[in-house]
Amino acid sequence: MDQPTEQVYSIPAPYRRMENMHILFWLLKDIGWCIIWKPLALSMIIPTLSIALIITWRTRTIKAELAHNLAIVFWISANSYWMISEFFNFEAVRVWGNVTGKHMALLPFLLGLFTLLYYYLVQKPREARLEPVATI
């Protein structure tokens, strides 16, 4: 009897090393934010976001990876904007009504959320319907 085969996703070693560096940069950015060390935190935005974009580009042909990596790009963008709003004291400045500078970080956060909602509610069910059905 044939065993069902599952699709395997493997990451080449250079890509894995880049992902590991991404985690290091992200942690350094957030540690800099936490201890209010602006030079460290601000200098880590570009490498963290750049690697997230490269990872997203490299995984663009795999829908699940693309959705999740796009959500990460939006998350890092929102997180970085929020940090900048605190560092430069515009987090409490009213932009419109009760919306403050910090609340503007909701835009990329929501883009990430909607990306994942689309994937799980539309794309993934569509892929499941298109998968070949095993016959006996």
* Number of helical regions: 5
Number of domains: 1
> What are the segments in which pLDDT stays under 50 over at least 5 consecutive residues?
none
Shape: flat
Mean pLDDT, to the nearest integer, reads: 90
User: Main sheet: which strands, in order across?
Assistant: 1-2
What's the total number of strands? 2
Distance between the termini: 9 Å
Q: Whole-number radius of gyration?
A: 19 Å
Keywords: Membrane, Transmembrane, Transmembrane helix
Characterise this structure.
This protein is mainly alpha-helical and 136 residues long. The chain has one domain (13-130). Helix content is 68%, strand content 4%. It has 5 helices and 2 strands, in the order ααααββα. α3 (45-58) packs antiparallel against α4 and α4 (63-87) runs antiparallel to α5. The relative contact order is 0.10. The model has no long low-confidence stretch (mean pLDDT 90). The chain crosses the membrane at residues 35-54, 66-84, 104-122. Keywords: Membrane, Transmembrane, Transmembrane helix.
